[in-house]
Amino acid sequence: MLLPAGRLQGAIDSGVPFDGSALQGRSRHFEIDMLLKPDPTTFVEVGGEIRAVCSITTRDGQPWLADPRAALAEIISRTGELAERFEVGAELEFYLLDHAGVPVDNGGYFGDLAGVGTAVTNAAADLLGSFGVKVVSAHLEAGPGQYEIDLGAMPPVALADALVLAKALLRQVAEERGVVATFMARPLAGQPGSGLHLHQHVLDQLFDDRWQLDESGRAFVGGQLLHASALTALAAPNVNSYKRLHAGPEAPGAVVWGHQSRNAVIRVGSSVEQRPSVEFRLADPAANPYLLLGGLLVAAADGLARALDPGPAFDEDIGGYDPTTVTKIQTQLLPRVLDQALDALLDDDVLVDAFDAQLLTRMVDGRRAEAQAYRAQVTAWELDRYLNDA
Asked: Which of 137, 162, 181, 304 is the most exposed place for a label (fewest CB within 10 A)?
């Protein structure tokens, strides 16, 4: 919603009315009077306009807990000291394509390019930095036309806001240069998927002097592994997400942790800022960062409260063997499709209790409808495979 500058103070003080039916997503549509309340700590100037992140409230000014940002704030208040000490950095991967869906370049990790892809990424990174977001680096990624922007560690709401802003700026800068920035988990068949890797820190906790997990660190990891299948619904939120998972050594497939393995759910090592971190590798950039960070906090808090142990580290290539035949370490596979992930979320009492029932119901209903619509499609692959042979 765009307001004249003269209305800004009134919006901060009293909120701005809007049609709440826009919040029901794909699952429900009806008229609700709601308010948008700008958060002054998020103000940035973009193209001569002030951009603000808003929270959603009811007409009487109470937080609407089906608002993902409000849900994260509520989880932060309930997880207390853990949330106060919790900081997260992010590796945001994305593809830059032309309007025909063709990658803008064929760079890869070691490409030495100075074309439109590099220009878009660097311009967006510069804008983020000018808005006070801690940008650590920006670089080419493994796929053609694939790039990454790395954000330094910050509190969870600030990081979620920064990720929303980063995606908006990348889309805007890309459009200005005649290309498309996509945050699909896997937009190109046969090419690497895009991840949203989160580097988690708890100040003065999780690691000993040798950067090895201490007792609290093992419990933190143990909680997130225990709830990994349910977290998948928040980390991998649409049908395309599951074309990235289980797809090779760069994306998770089993509920394990390790130090070197890139297909573990959690990798314990150093972050992009050269700090010891617990890296959550399951998510892709389509994830709602507020819901995802809230789920990670709840899972970690459960692990700490119950002193859960994650078991031994596992650093073999999950994709290189059949887990059902291995006796060295027991592994649980992540959900393979969206419906399985949603079932796991609804079966997880800890995560279900963490979110408002309105939010959870609407999210699950909307995503079930999306999965059903996807199953009803007849794809080009099916026509090529079966049209003349079935």
From this structure: 137
